[in-house]
């Protein structure tokens, strides 16, 4: 690949030489060199090449890796028929929606290969009432993997933690990076080229916020042209906030950014870290994905649609109001009907943010005085979780307090306390106060996404009418807005 790496890697697993030397999988390690002013991490010079004692892995048919396009741009524009018929291994397979098999993807007798047609999950967003076609991305991936390059940013989280003397989990510098280096999967010819940048200070995600998301956005921007996809390794506790924030910071994103983590650390024999990381690398190789996603356990979710829903289960993430974009079962699928369209404009990064946002639930009988105290300056944004479809108590003093805040320039984002469904102003008389106080409907947006969206938009200090319009609009697929026009607001 004639690609220029914007920031040198901490360490790199490289399979590009393997067609020449199928018996020896080369692993590049790296030595610390100097401080990178952009990422504040140590730059590593990938100059130390060590032959490992790993047993040789069976190389894939060289005709596949030799003949497939080598960049996302070329892959997008090129038809798959560049692969000669008969060159695929039995586990590969791809059938188009009408059931025909393109010549490039000849299936050789595997009952596992082929398209998976699934009913969408029980919940359909408005406008999506039918079933969605899920395609077997795993089959497609096995012809793609080794031609792709992925930039991985390791920020911390349980996946790379070890146990301290008191038995509590804490980030262990370099452990995850070294462990990944030693896993045979990462030297497989089917894996993309991987470059990992471990942050100087890896964190429990409780310490990740807008500032760290801006640093991630900056790092993605610096490496955007050099890689086909990005993976962010992150703790689960605030993963949905970071994924949401990244989605708003990255405008016209044309490549996958997959955020993942684990519930069990990689230091345990039984863990979910290994699979989550491997599958995220695979999804990050997709040329169909051009958005920020979370992969966890067995689902690929839109990053700004998901929430952490379980503390102790492996299926810790879910999206209540939007179906998964992909699923991992016997097949690894991508539901193309649901994916964001490739962007029309240039990739652009917005790193500004404003953290002066609070959120609260309306509670039965909530007192205006309490709300008044909560929403004093420097508060600039309020996320208010209302009852049901956007309702609240009728006490006029409550709405006066909120109206006054709105009049002095505080934005009030209206969400529902229900985990499914969306806000509709005007459905009940009990919702009149909510809209009259200047509230802006967040429809079915998650609280993580509402916080991220407000923070990013308020950080840009736009005129109030533009800010209100952006908050009311669907910018990144984060909420289901029932508007009939295809009006897209300017600016984000
Ligand atoms: N599973 C995890 O990653 C939880 C951890 N406390 C974190 O968010 O960093």
From TrEMBL:
Region Disordered, residue ranges: 1-104
Give binding positions for substrate: 205, 236-237
> A GO term (biological process) for this protein?
aspartate family amino acid metabolic process
Task: Give EC number(s), comma-separated.
Answer: 3.5.1.1
Q: Where is the composition biased (Basic and acidic residues)?
A: 11-21
Q: Which Gene3D superfamilies match?
A: 3.40.50.40, L-asparaginase, N-terminal domain
L-asparaginase N-terminal domain segment(s): 150-336
Active site per database record: 158, 236
Q: Does the keyword Lipid metabolism apply?
A: no
| Reactions that this protein is recorded to catalyse | L-asparagine + H2O = L-aspartate + NH4(+)
Pfam families, A to Z: Asparaginase, Asparaginase_C
Q: Where is the Asparaginase/glutaminase C-terminal domain?
A: 360-470
Gene Ontology terms for molecular function = asparaginase activity
Provide ranges: composition bias, Polar residues. Answer: 22-41, 66-94
Give the InterPro entries listed for this entry: Asp/glu_Ase-like_sf, Asparaginase/glutaminase-like, Asparaginase/glutaminase_AS2, Asparaginase_C, L-asparaginase_C, L-asparaginase_I, L-asparaginase_N, L-asparaginase_N_sf
Keywords for this entry?
Hydrolase
**Enzyme class label:** hydrolase
Q: Quote the CDD domains the UniProt record gives.
A: L-asparaginase_I
* Protein family: Belongs to the asparaginase 1 family.
According to UniProt, the name of this protein is: asparaginase
Q: What is the lineage of its organism?
A: Eukaryota, Ichthyosporea, Ichthyophonida, Sphaeroforma
């Amino acid at each position: 690949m004639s690609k220029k790496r914007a920031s040198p890697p901490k360490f790199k697993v490289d399979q590009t030489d393997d067609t020449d030397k199928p018996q020896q999988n080369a692993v590049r390690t790296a030595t610390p060199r100097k401080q990178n002013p952009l990422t504040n991490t140590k730059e590593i010079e990938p100059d130390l090449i060590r032959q490992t004692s790993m047993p040789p892995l069976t190389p894939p048919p060289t005709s596949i890796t030799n003949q497939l396009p080598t960049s996302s741009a070329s892959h997008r524009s090129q038809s798959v028929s560049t692969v000669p018929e008969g060159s695929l291994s039995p586990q590969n397979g791809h059938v188009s929606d009408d059931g025909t098999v393109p010549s490039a993807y000849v299936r050789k007798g595997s009952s596992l290969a082929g398209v998976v047609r699934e009913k969408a999950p029980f919940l359909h967003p408005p406008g999506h009432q039918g079933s969605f076609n899920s395609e077997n991305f795993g089959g497609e991936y096995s012809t793609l993997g080794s031609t792709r390059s992925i930039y991985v940013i390791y920020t911390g989280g349980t996946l790379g933690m070890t146990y301290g003397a008191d038995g509590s989990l804490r980030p262990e510098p370099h452990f995850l990076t070294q462990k990944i280096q030693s896993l045979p999967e990462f030297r497989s010819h089917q894996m993309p080229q991987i470059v990992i940048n471990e942050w100087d200070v890896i964190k429990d995600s409780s310490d990740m916020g807008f500032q760290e998301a801006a640093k991630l956005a900056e790092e993605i921007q610096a490496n955007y042209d050099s890689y086909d996809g990005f993976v962010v390794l992150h703790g689960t506790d605030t993963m949905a906030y970071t994924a949401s924030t990244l989605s708003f910071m990255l405008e016209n994103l044309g490549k996958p950014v997959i955020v993942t983590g684990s519930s069990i650390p990689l230091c345990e024999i039984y863990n979910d870290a290994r699979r989550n990381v491997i599958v995220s690398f695979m999804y990050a190789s997709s040329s169909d994905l051009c958005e920020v996603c979370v992969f966890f356990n067995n689902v690929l979710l839109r990053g700004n649609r998901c929430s952490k829903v379980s503390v102790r289960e492996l299926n810790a993430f879910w999206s209540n109001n939007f179906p998964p974009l992909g699923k991992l079962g016997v097949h690894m699928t991508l539901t193309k009907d649901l994916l964001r369209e490739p962007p029309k404009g240039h990739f652009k990064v917005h790193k500004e943010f404003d953290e002066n946002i609070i959120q609260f639930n309306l509670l039965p009988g909530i007192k205006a005085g309490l709300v008044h105290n909560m929403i004093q300056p420097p508060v600039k944004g309020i996320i208010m979780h209302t009852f049901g479809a956007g309702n609240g108590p009728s006490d006029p003093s409550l709405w006066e307090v909120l109206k006054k805040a709105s009049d002095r320039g505080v934005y009030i984002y209206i969400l529902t306390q229900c985990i499914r469904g969306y806000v509709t102003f005007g459905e009940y008389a009990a919702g009149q106060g909510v809209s009259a106080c200047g509230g802006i409907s967040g429809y079915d947006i998650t609280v993580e996404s509402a916080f991220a969206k407000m923070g990013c938009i308020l950080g840009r200090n736009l005129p109030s009418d533009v800010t209100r319009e952006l908050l009311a609009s669907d910018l990144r697929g984060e909420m289901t807005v029932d508007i009939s026009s295809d009006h897209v607001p300017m600016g984000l």
